[in-house]
Structure formats: C-alpha cells, structure tokens
C-alpha cells in the first residue's frame, strides 16, 4: 500500500511562513504528479499546487507569488513553502500523488492524512 505522510503544519500569525513536507512510500513504480490540496471547514477541497513529471508546476491563483512547491524525486517527496500567510489560508492541507504502483498499471490517486494550517489575525 502506498502511503503519503505530511508534516510541518501549525499555527502562525498572518504574514508568517510555514513549510510543509510530504513523503511517499510503498509500492511505487513511477509518479506522474505530486501536489497539495487544501480544505477549509464547509468548503470543497481545492488545488494549491501540483508538480507534473515533466517538471511543470501549477499554482492556484490565490497562492501565486506566496507559495512555492518543490520536489525531490530521489526521496519521493514534495515540499510547500508558504510565505505571507493570510487567515484565508487556514485549512487542512493534503498531499496528493498520482502514480503507478507497477509497470503498465493504471494511474491512481493517493492522499495523505492531512496537516492543519491555522493562520491567525
């Protein structure tokens, strides 16, 4: 079973920074993309950032210029550096991976357990 484990969440004051990390482990043949999603209470889960296998990175408009995502393929990890945090960034942040568990298998989505990010005014 593939596992994604997030770390780095916490409580910060508006304008502060946090760095989230996610490590993928288990039966992984290849990873097509890794990314971050977030979900605030009463709201739908939304894309924050995603890095594709070709290196292209997409960000939600709401975080462009403030958040930076990076990857380490050797360790199957992805990071999210969050700067200039705003109260509206408060949410549970989930790591996501789209991957193959073996050669010729269909790609599947995997999710981490989530880590809470709280930004106070």
List the helices and strands and how they pair.
Blueprint: E1 3-7, E2 10-13, E3 18-25, E4 30-39, E5 46-52, E6 57-59, E7 67-72, E8 77-82, E9 91-100, E10 108-111, E11 115-120
Parallel strand pairs: 2-11
Antiparallel strand pairs: 1-3, 3-8, 4-5, 4-9, 5-6, 7-8, 9-10, 9-11
How would you describe this structure to a colleague?
- Strand 7 (67-72) and strand 8 form a beta hairpin.
- The mean pLDDT is 96.
- The strands form two sheets. Strands 2, 4, 5, 6, 9, 10 and 11 form a seven-stranded mixed β-sheet that branches.
- By secondary structure, the protein is an all-beta fold.
- The protein contains no helices and eleven strands.
- It is elongated.
- The chain has strands spanning 3-7, 10-13, 18-25, 30-39, 46-52, 57-59, 67-72, 77-82, 91-100, 108-111, 115-120.
Keywords:
single chain; 121 residues; mainly beta; seven-stranded mixed β-sheet; four-stranded antiparallel β-sheet
Low-confidence parts: none
Largest sheet: 7 strands, mixed
Shape: elongated
Fraction in beta strands: over 45%
Q: Give the topology string: H per helix, E per strand.
A: EEEEEEEEEEE
Distance between the termini: 40 Å
Proportion of residues in helical segments: under 10%
Return the average pLDDT rounded to an integer. Answer: 96
Q: Could you give the count of β-strands?
A: 11
Summed up, the helix count is: 0
- Rg (CA only): 14 Å
Structural class: mainly beta
């Amino acid at each position: 079973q593939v596992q994604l484990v997030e770390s780095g969440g916490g409580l910060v004051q508006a304008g502060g920074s946090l760095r989230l990390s996610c490590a993928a482990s288990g039966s992984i043949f290849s990873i097509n993309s890794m990314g971050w999603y977030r979900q605030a209470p009463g709201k739908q889960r939304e894309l924050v950032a995603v890095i594709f296998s070709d290196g292209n990175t997409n960000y939600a408009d709401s975080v462009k210029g403030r958040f930076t995502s990076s990857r380490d393929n050797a360790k199957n990890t992805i990071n999210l550096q969050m700067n200039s945090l705003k109260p509206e960034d408060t949410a549970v942040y989930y790591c996501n991976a789209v991957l193959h568990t073996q050669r010729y298998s269909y790609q599947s989505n995997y999710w981490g357990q989530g880590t809470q990010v709280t930004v106070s005014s």
